[in-house]
Amino acid sequence: MTIPVRYSIVVPVFNEEAVISETYKRLTDVMKLTGEEYELLFVNDGSRDRTASILKEYSDRDSSVKLIDFSRNFGHQIAITAGMDYALGDAIVVIDADLQDPPELILEMIEKWKEGYDVVYAKRTQRKGETFFKKQTASLFYRLLRASTDIDIPLDTGDFRLIDRKVCDEMKKIPEKSRFVRGLVSWVGFRQTAIEYVRDERLAGETKYPLKKMLKLSMDGITSFSYKPLKLASYAGALLSAAGFIYMLVVLYLKLFTDSTVAGWASLIIIQLLFSGIVLIILGVIGEYIGRIYDETKNRPLYIVRDHYGIERKAANSIGHK
Ligand code: UDP
Ligand code: MG
């Protein structure tokens, strides 16, 4: 008889051959300390290096190692989602593969969970070894997101967190495609608490989050949890048409009651550029939302699994996002 899995550790991996062995070792050492049954559920998000073959080897040797192998790169948030779909544990921990989030904190999370919390998220008090630009833009993003939404999304908190089985089951019912997982966990609710930590440097390799992916993540975060950009667009429109109306009165006055109808080329050009710029920005904002509506309506599956290792069919059949 198999012992039921108590803890599932979900690790999304994308080209992490430089760190993966150390990550496996550190996670295993920590999880052994719990004395309970656990699984290390790696989700290979279309790596082009040896990550998947290294993990396959581990799963042959160690029955706690499981691997879901995507057919291509679907993105970090989708990889986490797949991990939650396949996880069997009573508590599920999501952690990055690069050891920026210290695995030892999982024990602290488990303690909080045993006290009765359903979500234990890890808040970064400090980030080491990241560029000034990354820290500033991340900090700005978390504050912007918080200001624009009514959902209580904690500041400076990534996806490193523990969630209870019931939270995971609720997450699996959420069908949306532009997934901002940390926001969705807040949205689901239940009893949530934080622990604080200092975020380490990446152990080896380079960040898998270039500016393009960071921008996509932040747009997904804001558009999934707020209409404020749309509201701001309409306020900007209202303000500009009011300004335009006032200027029209001035121009009419000058035309009708004075002789000083100036050539006005400069002011015309300025107004033209300014207004069309703003109109284009507003269109862009609307476009961001429409693009996401389009993604939702196509209703494609969130991800495609090429193969899995160390996972029984039963688990594969019970996933939420087919
Ligand atoms: N990752 C992923 N798919 C991607 C990009 C990243 O699964 O398309 C994984 C990556 O392997 C790591 C985690 O997501 O485990 C966080 O990525 P990274 O550490 O590069 O981001 P950063 O810490 O620099 O923001
Ligand atoms: Mg990292």
How does this structure look, described?
By secondary structure, the chain is α/β, with parallel strands linked by helices. The protein has 2 domains: 7-209 and 300-309, Spore Coat Polysaccharide Biosynthesis Protein SpsA, Chain A, CATH 3.90.550.10; 228-298. Helix content is 51%, strand content 17%. The chain has helices spanning 20-34, 51-61, 76-86, 105-115, 132-148, 165-172, 181-188, 211-225, 228-257, 265-298, 313-317, and strands spanning 7-13, 38-44, 65-70, 91-94, 119-127, 157-164, 192-199, 305-309. Residues 314-318 have low confidence and may be disordered. Bound molecules: uridine-5'-diphosphate (UDP) and magnesium ion. Magnesium ion binds next to loops. Uridine-5'-diphosphate binds next to strand 1 and helix 3.
What's the quick description here?
Helices cover 51% and strands 17% of the residues. It has helices at residues 20-34, 51-61, 76-86, 105-115, 132-148, 165-172, 181-188, 211-225, 228-257, 265-298, 313-317, and strands spanning 7-13, 38-44, 65-70, 91-94, 119-127, 157-164, 192-199, 305-309.
Number of continuous helical runs: 11
CATH class of the largest domain: Alpha Beta
Mean pLDDT: 87
- Ranges where pLDDT stays below 50 over 5 or more residues in a row are 314-318
Q: What characterizes the major β-sheet?
A: 8 strands, mixed
Radius of gyration: 25 Å
Looking at the overall shape, the CATH architecture of the largest domain is Alpha-Beta Complex
Please state roughly what percent of the residues sit in beta strands, choosing from under 5%, 5-15%, 15-25%, 25-35%, 35-45% or over 45%. Answer: 15-25%
